[in-house]
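User: We ran a pulldown and think these components assemble together. Before we commit to crystallization trials, I'd like a predicted model of the whole complex to look at. Sequences follow.
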Amino acid sequence: MVDFIRGQLISIAFVIFILGLIFQLFQFFKLTKKKDWVYPPSPITSEKKTAGQWVAFCLASLNGTLWKTDPLMTLMTSVFHVFLIAVPIFLLGHNIVLDQSWGLSLWSLPESITDILTVVVLVCAAFFLARRLFLARVRAITTIYDYVILLIAVAPFLTGYFAYHQWFNYDTVMTLHILAGEVMLITIPFTKLGHMLFFFLSRFLIGSEYSFAKGARAW
Amino acid sequence: MFRQEMKPVDTKQIRKMLNRKKGKMKRYLSYCAHCSLCAESCFLYMEHHKDPQYMPSYKAINSLGKLYRKRARVDRKLLTEMKGIVWRNCVLCGRCYCPIGIHIPSMIAFARSILRSQDVYPRLDEVSTESWL
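Assistant: Here's a predicted model for the assembly, 352 residues in total across the polymer chains.
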């Protein structure tokens, strides 16, 4: 069982993850249609802005976003999502394993930095948990499934932190860390975690008032 | 009591309607992270002293979400409860904002269509303890 988790299951998880994302991508294009335009393009302003005006414009634009209504949550969720993806990719240990198996690796962050960033991710996760437990509006729509999803997202970081600091039995913690990563990869395309893909698809390809780009598709 | 309100619920028809938009609506429902960040974008939520019942996500989850979760096995009592959620608690102004990009108004509008197919909708001559306005 342990050999399976530390061996074959890693490849299986990656295959399910990639094929699952391709399937969801295909479904997205099947369910949406291309439109000539959905929202009229915004007027092009030719006047040039000075650096100061540009900063003022950017800060004023933030007033219409979540930075204005819930700045703490916006900060926490932005930090959490960036590091959730960046830390495992640029982790030295992962890149060494990648180099040993496939002979290729990415640029790595110093271990002291990734150690701190892991704690940052865990603190953000604790903040989300506290919101779910103590904020009435979040509690009103929370089910047991939300806690499970949070656990799936956080488990690789928690076990990774334990493994790096060699707390508890190293081999067991390492196996749990690999299993947690595999569970996360497998569940991403088919659960709430699918917002990883859906966020970008809807924000860039669907035409809407809040899109980051002028999307040319509609549901 | 209105005669329509005594009619049995046509679960087959509801299931048929749910299946027609299953791909899109189930995706919306399953990708909702239950973050509640849509709350402040609803003027009714703000007007009702931030009562969670007026949150856009709460309204979608407890109407359309419930219909999918129960696979259309619903009774008239539950549909009547949903009537309040999708008509009184939401005016379909389309101002709700979802950071993930879920289009909440289309979920509420679809829930209204399903309820309407079962003759569940607010009537002008309805005698109710609660105002519809």
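Residues 8-31 of chain A form the longest helix (24 residues). That may be worth checking against your pulldown data before setting up trials.

User: Thanks, that helps.
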